[in-house]
Design goal:
Distance between the termini: 54 Å
Largest sheet: 5 strands, mixed
Number of domains: 1
CATH superfamily: HUPs
CATH class: Alpha Beta
CATH topology: Rossmann fold
GO molecular function, one term: electron transfer activity
Strand order of the largest sheet: 7-11-8-9-10
Radius of gyration: 22 Å
Family: Belongs to the ETF beta-subunit/FixA family.
Protein name: Electron transfer flavoprotein subunit beta
Cofactor: AMP
Organism: Sphingomonas chungangi
Number of strands: 12
C-alpha cells in the first residue's frame, strides 16, 4: 500500500521566484488524498477478514516517516520507508514497489490513482506491467471474494466492472470511500509499530531522473469582468473579442 508525502491539498502552492519548481519551504505537507483512500480501503478489507496484514510503503525524504505514521495510526500494521532525497519519477517508484512486491508477496496492492503534486497517474499501471499482475484502475467500488477481486471502475462513459484474478493491483478513485480520522490512542500506538528504513540501492533501483523540468510558472491571472447594459451590448462585446461571429 504505497503512500506519498505531498503538499496539503488545502494549501495553495507557490512557484519559486526563479521558476525552477514549487516552493516547499515552511509548507504544510500531508498524505496524498488518493492514498488516504487506499489506506482506508485496505483497513476495511482487514476489518472484513479479507486481509490479514497491511503494509504501508513510502518513497522519499526522511520526513516521509510522518506520512507512514499517519497510515499506521489509521490502521496499517507496519511500514517501509525507502529513503532518498532524489525526485523519484513514476517508473523508478514502480520498480522499487515491484521489488517490495517480490519480497512481501502481497495478495493485493492498493494505491492512489495519482499524486496531487505531479498528477502523473502512471505508477499503478507501470507496477502492474512490471509484476505481470492484472490491474483495476480508478476503482470506485471493490469487492474481494476467494481468489478474485471485482472492481467497478470510473471511465469516461460511466462505470465499468471488471473481475481480476488475485494477486492484483488496484488504484483508487475519489468515490471509493471516505477515509477515517486517526484517533489519539491510535496515533500513540503508531509510534511503536514497526517502520523499516531502506534505500533504493537495497532494491537495486537507479533513481536518476530521466526528465528535466525546464520551467514552472503560475497560471495566468483572470482579467476583470465587464458589465453590460443589455443583450445587444453583450453581443457586440463578444464580437469584438472574436468569440461570436
Amino acid at each position: 500500500m504505497p503512500v506519498k508525502r505531498v503538499i496539503d491539498y488545502n494549501v495553495k502552492p507557490r512557484v519559486k521566484m526563479d521558476g525552477t519548481g514549487v516552493d516547499l519551504a515552511n509548507v504544510k505537507m500531508s498524505m496524498n488524498p488518493f492514498d488516504e483512500i487506499s489506506v482506508e480501503e485496505a483497513i476495511r478489507l482487514k476489518e472484513k477478514g479479507v486481509a490479514t496484514e497491511i503494509v504501508a510503503v513510502s518513497i522519499g525524504v526522511a520526513k516521509a516517516q510522518e506520512t507512514l505514521r499517519t497510515a499506521l495510526a489509521m490502521g496499517a500494521d507496519r511500514a517501509i520507508l525507502v529513503q532518498t532525497d532524489d525526485e523519484v519519477e513514476p517508473l523508478a517508484v514502480a520498480k522499487i514497489l515491484k521489488a517490495i512486491v517480490d519480497e512481501e508477496q502481497p495478495g493485493l496492492v492498493i494505491l492512489g490513482k495519482q499524486a496531487i503534486d505531479d498528477d502523473s497517474n502512471q505508477t499503478g499501471q507501470m507496477l502492474a506491467a512490471l509484476t505481470g499482475r492484472p490491474q483495476g484502475t480508478f476503482a470506485n467500488k471493490l469487492e474481494v471474494a476467494g481468489d478474485a477481486a471485482t472492481v467497478t471502475r470510473e471511465v469516461d462513459g460511466g462505470l465499468e466492472t471488471v473481475k481480476l484474478a488475485l494477486p492484483a493491483i488496484i488504484t483508487t478513485d475519489l468515490r471509493l470511500n471516505e477515509p477515517r480520522y486517526a484517533s489519539l490512542p491510535n496515533i500513540m500506538k503508531a509510534k511503536s509499530k514497526p517502520l523499516a528504513n531502506k534505500t533504493p540501492a537495497d532494491y537495486g533501483v537507479d533513481t536518476a531522473t530521466r526528465l528535466q523540468t525546464l520551467k514552472v510558472s503560475e497560471p495566468p491571472k483572470r482579467s476583470a469582468g465587464i458589465k453590460v447594459a443589455d443583450v445587444d451590448e453583450l453581443v457586440a462585446k463578444l464580437k469584438n473579442m472574436g468569440v461570436a461571429a
